[in-house]
Design goal:
Layout (H helix, E strand, L loop, with lengths): L2 E7 L6 E7 L2 E5 L1 E3 L12 H7 L4 E4 H6 L3 H6 L3 H5 L5 E4 L2 H6 L2 E5 L4 E4 L6 E4 L1 H11 L3 E3 L11 H21 L6 E6 L5 H14 L3 E4 L8 H14 L6 E3 L5 H9 L4 E3 L2 H7 L2 E4 L2 E4 L19 H5 L2 H9 L3 H27 L3 H13 L3
Parallel strand pairs: 4-14, 5-6, 6-10, 10-11, 11-12, 12-13, 13-14
Antiparallel strand pairs: 1-2, 2-3, 7-8, 8-9, 15-16
The structure holds the ligand CC1(C)O[C@H]2[C@@H](O1)[C@@]1(COC(C)(C)O1)O[C@@H]2CNc1nc2cc3nc(N)[nH]c(=O)c3cc2[nH]1 and zinc ion.
The ligand CC1(C)O[C@H]2[C@@H](O1)[C@@]1(COC(C)(C)O1)O[C@@H]2CNc1nc2cc3nc(N)[nH]c(=O)c3cc2[nH]1 binds next to helix 5.
Pfam families: TGT
GO cellular component, one term: cytosol
Cofactor: Zn(2+)
Length: 370
């Protein structure tokens, strides 16, 4: 079963605090979803993720289809059982990766043929295949197979792609066999508001359990992303979750919560952790900085994560410079904990009717790089 209830609504912004119920557990929104593309959130164990407060993680149809493949996943009873993750998972449909990662061969009305980025073998994805793979993965929330329209794109291209994405979304909904999985539609439309309206109307008339705002965080100006996000969110049903795909920085998340978005995912906290960039409530910094060699400070005074409770910046700098594997884990624990604290504190601020002042204060503090 899948349900979404809005528990609190902010009076000054479009922010809301809610609760999603899925077969593998509940999710308090707004929520950030750590990205576990090929079945693990890089460098983190399920225990690390639970200790950091993660409530749902993201997997990826394209990657999991290539490796380990649906036969292995079905053998182990799905991705969650396979990876011993005992909470909800959401999977992206493969549309984005096929267009951005694989060597594209052909896009037709039926689907997309491409070459695997792993071994160059010829593969094929279409709405029915994507749903079938996501059913084998067994994720709690699955995504429609769509085209993430590249940026920039002409109005003509956007219109044709939006209409095909809607036809693909309907095919996916008709192909879905497992009732316990929730299916989201993905709104496209590039940077054209009338195309966003067209896509939102097409998808809401088909009807989905939730709606993703797609086609953003693909290289457009941040101001454009906020404008299109806010406009698109306003077109979507109030009583269904809204998921902004691939976003973003702490500032982006705080801003888009105010625009009415409930769910976020981004590789930034884990990817940046692995290259030594750490997020704090007063901006981000590089652990490689020479002036940190003797620093006995924590990464962030306001953070209660395992890394901040036990290690100094000086030690973390040493680990990173020495190329120690532990650096990847400790940095990732902190960055994921920080991102989860942003959404948790936002949720609490909405409940207390203080989101606008919380958001403005956080945005101000995040600007002063420490
Ligand atoms: C290629 C890779 C790993 O995906 C991340 C990351 O790089 C990077 C590169 O720059 C940052 C911003 C840090 O995020 O951009 C990606 C995050 N933006 C994004 N993810 C999306 C996923 C999507 N999935 C579907 N099915 N449909 C969409 O329209 C869609 C749109 C999306 N936009
Ligand atoms: Zn920390």
């Amino acid at each position: 079963m899948f349900s979404f209830d809005i528990e609190y609504k902010d009076s000054e912004t479009s922010a809301r605090a809610g609760r999603i119920k899925t077969p593998h557990g509940e999710i308090e929104t707004p929520i950030f979803m750590p990205v576990g593309t090929v079945g693990s959130v890089k460098a983190l164990s399920p225990e690390d993720l639970n200790n950091a407060g993660a409530q749902i993680i993201l997997g990826n149809t394209y990657h999991l289809y290539l490796r380990p493949g649906t036969e292995v996943l079905k053998h182990f009873g799905g991705l969650a059982a396979f990876s011993s993750w005992n909470k909800p998972t959401l999977t992206d449909s493969g549309g984005f990766q096929v267009f951005s990662l694989a060597e594209l061969n052909k896009i037709t009305e039926d689907g997309v043929s491409f070459k695997s980025h792993l071994d160059g073998s010829s593969l094929y994805l279409n709405p029915e295949k994507s749903i079938e793979i996501q059913e084998a993965i067994g994720s709690d929330i699955i995504m429609s197979f769509d085209e993430c329209i590249p940026y920039p794109a002409t109005y003509e291209y956007v219109k044709n792609s939006v209409d095909r994405t809607a036809r693909w979304a309907l095919r996916g909904k008709n192909a879905k066999k497992r009732d316990e999985q929730a299916l989201f539609g993905i709104v496209q439309g590039g940077i054209y508001e009338d195309m966003r309206k067209r896509s939102a109307e097409q998808l809401t008339s088909i009807g989905f359990d939730g709606y993703s705002i797609g086609g953003l965080s693909v290289g457009e100006e941040i101001s454009t992303m906020y404008e299109i996000c806010g406009y698109t969110a306003s077109l979507l049903p109030q009583d269904k979750p809204r998921y902004l795909m691939g976003v973003g920085t702490p500032e982006d998340i705080l801003t888009c919560i105010g625009l009415g978005v409930d769910m976020f995912d981004c590789v930034m906290p884990t990817r940046n952790a692995r290259n030594g960039t750490l997020f704090t409530s007063s901006g981000k910094f590089s652990i490689k900085r020479a002036d940190l060699a003797f620093s006995d400070e924590k990464i962030d005074e306001n953070c209660s994560c395992y890394t901040c409770r036990n290690f100094s910046r000086g030690y973390l700098r040493h680990l990173y410079k020495a190329g120690e594997i532990l650096a990847l884990r400790l940095n990732s624990i902190h960055n994921i904990s920080f991102y989860l604290s942003i959404v948790k504190n936002s949720r609490n601020a909405v409940k207390e009717g203080k989101f606008k002042s919380f958001q403005q204060e956080m945005l101000y503090r995040l600007k002063n790089n420490n």
